[in-house]
Design brief:
Elements: E1 6-7, E2 10-11, E3 14-17, E4 23-24, E5 33-34, H1 36-49, E6 53-54, H2 68-82, E7 87-91, H3 97-110, E8 114-118, H4 127-139, E9 145-149, H5 151-154, H6 160-169, E10 173-178, H7 183-193, E11 198-201, H8 207-212, E12 217-220, H9 227-238, H10 242-253, H11 267-275, H12 292-304
Parallel strand pairs: 3-6, 3-12, 6-7, 7-8, 8-9, 9-10, 10-11, 11-12
Antiparallel strand pairs: 1-2, 4-5
Length: 313
């Protein structure tokens, strides 16, 4: 599909930023509260950076630390702040089928453009359980759904055959975020699902290998910090300009990506944003800031890449 082509409210290729959720600590409260003012700033950065959309309250948005009301508030505000300029693919999955349905219906009512549905975590369902879960969610909403397979966090992957069954059973299941680190999965998915099913890379460091095999873009953590550079790289790749895309990756992106995940996500990206002059807010327990060693390494790379005060470029 051509970059920028709209389908049911979503751009079915390009860059979707797995946007952070900013928090602020206001004594005497012990738990950081949502900082919607900073969220507005972050959304505006993404709009100006040229990404195709944002994913609020995904893994990078610390969804597991938000209660139901906070989760919906972040989605509502993201829709308001985006104001139709970029798409909002709301993270509304869960390991409770009923909760996933409630969140997805509420996101639809709030004006989200689509839903990102993670594989149920902790309870490790069978492939039949995954099929029944996702089908029930899809039948409960009119939103386009992007599946999210991330076995390192969920304990199970969404098998290729299960994805095929879901596409056949549910017209609004229209893509998948692949975060299993296996390029062969991209080849199999593309061969079995055809060109109309959107495959997004879920790992910043694998974006170009995945796109060379049939992925159409990335759900990116790094684009919180460097939306324009990630968007430019993916745009080149979509148009077949892999030489230019590879140059951007190797020079501007590859040096920092590994450091974002040494002490976990989103601890790494929040620290990187802070060091570059973007106030990303607090973390909520059980997440804690990166170690001093990681902080020093991040500062060194950010200084070398001349990112301080230029994170949007």
């Amino acid at each position: 599909m051509k970059k920028g082509t709209k389908k049911a409210g979503l751009t079915y290729n390009g860059v979707y930023t797995a946007i952070i959720t900013p928090f602020k600590l206001e004594p005497p409260r012990l738990k950081p509260t949502l900082d919607l003012e900073k969220l507005s700033v972050q959304v505006e950065l993404q709009v100006k950076g040229g990404v195709d959309g944002i994913v609020p309250v995904g893994t990078t948005g610390e969804s597991a630390t938000l209660n139901f009301e906070e989760h919906l508030l972040v989605i509502r505000q993201a829709v308001i702040f985006a104001a139709g300029r970029i798409a909002v693919l709301a993270g509304t999955g869960g390991n409770s089928n009923e909760e996933a349905i409630q969140l997805t219906r509420a996101a639809e009512k709030a004006g989200a453009d689509g839903s990102l549905q993670v594989a149920p975590y902790y309870n490790k369902p069978t492939q039949e359980g995954l099929f029944q879960h996702f089908r029930a969610v899809a039948k409960a909403t009119g939103l386009p759904i992007i599946l999210y397979s991330i076995p390192s966090r969920c304990g199970v992957e969404i098998a290729v055959d299960t994805v095929c069954r879901l596409k056949d059973a549910c017209k609004n299941i229209e893509g998948i975020k692949e975060a299993g680190g296996d390029p062969k999965r991209v080849t199999k998915l593309r061969q079995k699902l055809g060109e109309d099913f959107s495959i997004f890379c879920g790992d910043d460091d694998l974006t170009l290998p995945f796109m060379s095999l049939g992925a159409v873009g990335v759900v990116s953590v790094l684009s919180n910090l460097l939306p324009r550079r990630v968007a430019d790289m993916v745009d080149y790749a979509i148009r077949g300009g892999y030489h230019e895309a590879r140059a951007i990756f190797e020079i501007d992106l590859a040096p920092i990506i590994p450091l974002l995940f040494v002490d976990g996500n989103p601890s790494g990206i929040k620290k990187a944003m802070e060091l570059a002059g973007l106030d990303s807010g607090e973390l909520r327990l059980p997440l804690v800031p990166v170690s001093q060693k990681t902080c020093t390494a991040l500062r060194r790379v950010i200084t070398k890449l001349n990112l301080i005060g230029k994170a949007h470029s």
